[in-house]
Amino acid sequence: xxxxxxxxxxxSLSVSIAMNCGGLIGEIDQISASLVNExxxxxxxxxxxxxxxxxxxxxxxxxxxxxxxxxxxPLSAGPLYARASVYYLxxxxxxxxxxxxxxxxxxxxxxxxxxxxxxxxxxAEYVEVPYEGTSYPAIxxxxxxxxxxxxxxxxxxxxxxxxxxxxxxxxxxxxxxARRGIATLCVDQPGTGASLRELGLPAIHDSERWxxxxxxxxxxxxxxxxxxxxxxxxSLGGYYAPRAAAFEKRFALCAVWGANYNWGELQLRRLARxxxxxxPHYWDHVQWVFGKRGLDEFLAxxxxxxxxxxxxxxxxxxxxxxxxxDRQIPMDLAVPEFENATASPDRELKIFTAAEGGSAHAxxxxxxxxxxxIADWVAARL
Length: 382
Known about the structure:
By secondary structure, the protein is an alpha/beta fold. The chain is about 45% helix and about 15% strand.
């Protein structure tokens, strides 16, 4: 993984996320050059300065985009809005939950992406998925080809611990699936994105509840083939997606981008300072995501986030991918996710090496490698 901040994995991960979601290295260098010294003080210190640097630059891109629209050049405005959206998100995800400016940055990111979709003429729309008396937001994106008889096959693509649907949309997988004739529903499931920030929906361990709601939504779309719906997830989505496929039997297959077999066990290792955290202020963040009041309450809940006895109930094709250099999820918490899925009629474990790329956590070093591999695997079966 590219280590822009040599001594700080968490800050460097943010740079990698920005690049993988369409950020430009020249712009990222403009934003980050003044932050190198700050990064040497640890993950948590200096995050407000990190925030201001990224948000200020995103603001300049929005201003430039507005100028392009004003003079009649929407196609020039679209990429500016797209990169601004990414930079706002990178700034926002690094902050404590009670850091008020993050709320504005998040909303600015969403609005910028909507404008990017509009001005670029992208095949995507914001939708609402009805869920247990309320709803959660998602982005539905579709291929350029005509709707096939019976509707498009589609993948439900879910977040991990700290991503948002806007990031999922900008990662390579939805675009690669579209090139293969497959639509994607990028979801802000409970505990992520707008569901957490604006609706107050905490994460739950039984992901089949919100994943089943996504299937219900897709089943009601005339442009979707309800018999050809798959499930995928990135990072902590490597727990959510298999759990959903195990208990929501309408899914036709499952493909995970980064295994996550026993996330509860991983929390004990993180208490012992093993491995890397994905975000600053980590323990505050996980309590926020899962709606827990205090570390003890969170740690009492964490053991429920395990796929032991769960992957055995997956009865559809199942792909597990993982990076050999993943510094967040060790290999011993990845391999059992594949080995124990003995009821799957078609299972595969793919380990991405440093030589081929995609070997860091969730492909942070080169997301195009796992995105293409997963898209090929899905297209051959869905």
